[in-house]
Amino acid sequence: MHTGSYDDEPRTFKLMEEFCMENNLQRVQKTHKEIYISDARKTQPEKLKTVLRFQVQEL
Question: What does residue 30 show for φ and ψ, rounded to 5 degrees?
């Protein structure tokens, strides 16, 4: 779950990739999916919530 501005998503992806390295997982491809929990038209940027997903496989 990413909380904050969409501009800050790369920081969350970096944390996700670090988690993968620590847990013997590898990101399969650079594409990803985003599920928007908050409505960007009604929510302040620092309170936006977005589920970020990418496919992984075990090493």
Answer: -85, -10
Could you list the residue range(s) of the whole structural domain that residue 48 is in?
A: 2-58
Our count of domains for the chain comes to 1
Max Cα-Cα span within the chain: 42
| The pLDDT value given to residue 32 | 97
> What's residue 18's pLDDT?
97
**Which pair of tokens denotes residue 56?**
């992984």
Q: Which residue has the tokens 């409505």?
A: 39
User: How distant, in Å, are the alpha carbons of 14, 19, 55 from that of 30?
Assistant: 12, 16, 9
pLDDT digits (tens, 9 = 90+) for 4-39: 999 999 999 999 999 999 999 999 999 999 999 999
